[in-house]
TrEMBL record:
CDD domains: dNK (cd01673). InterPro entries: DCK/DGK, Deoxyribonucleoside_kinase, DNK_dom, P-loop_NTPase. It comes from the Bacteria. One of its GO terms (molecular function) is ATP binding. It comes from Anaerobacillus alkaliphilus. The keyword RNA-binding does not apply. ATP binds at G11, P12, I13, G14, V15, G16, K17, S18, S19, R138, I139, S140, L141, R142. This is Deoxynucleoside kinase. It holds the Pfam family dNK.
Length: 210
């Protein structure tokens, strides 16, 4: 049976997930799914005091992503309409494991597995990674007030967590292709040739899956 394309763009904060998902949506005419970020009422406090605000922040993200994926499944994928998202819900595990206390994390995992059961799974993942300097530069350029207090050490550790998680994900999900791009070497916003390179890679995988 032919798969309905569902692409997820992933990577650490500031790497360009939303920008690339938007470009993919425009180019392929896919439904665009953007995660809710600035609407999270706990996020500003989270960057000031991670220990105090991590559980509220992660629960807000989990519930909103759950609702978004329910809607994309029901109203788009089930109707044969391809989609691209600027996240995969597995990112919740990366952030929660890093920020939550052990007892909180155990409670969180139980809720996570209940909510994500039967969720739509992307059949292609684009992983954007970059050095700390590049991430900090891009975060500064987009100028979100809530991100002004991001600790560079937290961001560096998060990038490392992503690399480890993606390596494990690729081994555990051999049928889900992961295309990795180095944000230090490729800038699809400033260089449209880089964007064409990304589209070319996507085309190859879409042809194989279809």
């Amino acid at each position: 049976m032919k798969q309905v394309p569902f692409i997820a763009v992933e990577g650490p904060i500031g790497v360009g997930k939303s920008s690339l998902a938007r470009e993919i949506s425009n180019y392929y005419q896919y439904t665009l799914l953007n995660e809710i970020v600035e609407e999270n009422p706990f996020l500003g406090n989270f960057y000031k005091d991670i220990d105090e605000w991590s559980f509220q922040t992660e629960m807000f993200f989990l519930c909103n992503r759950y609702k978004q994926l329910e809607d994309i499944k029901k109203y788009h994928l089930a109707q044969g309409q391809p989609a691209v998202a600027d996240y995969h819900i597995f990112k919740n595990q990366i952030f929660a494991e890093r920020t939550l206390q052990s007892q909180q994390y155990e409670k969180y995992k139980k809720i996570y597995y209940i909510l994500t059961e039967n969720m739509p799974e992307p059949n292609l993942i684009i992983y954007l990674r970059a050095s700390l300097d590049t991430l900090l530069e891009r975060i500064s350029l987009r100028g979100r007030d809530i991100e002004k207090n991001i600790d560079p050490a937290y961001l560096f550790q998060l990038s490392s967590d992503y690399d480890k998680f993606m390596e494990k994900f690729s081994k555990d999900h051999p049928n889900v292709p992961v295309i990795t791009f180095d944000g230090d070497k490729i800038d699809f916003v400033k260089n449209k040739q880089h964007l064409k390179t990304i589209f070319s890679e996507i085309d190859q995988h879409l042809c194989v899956s279809n």
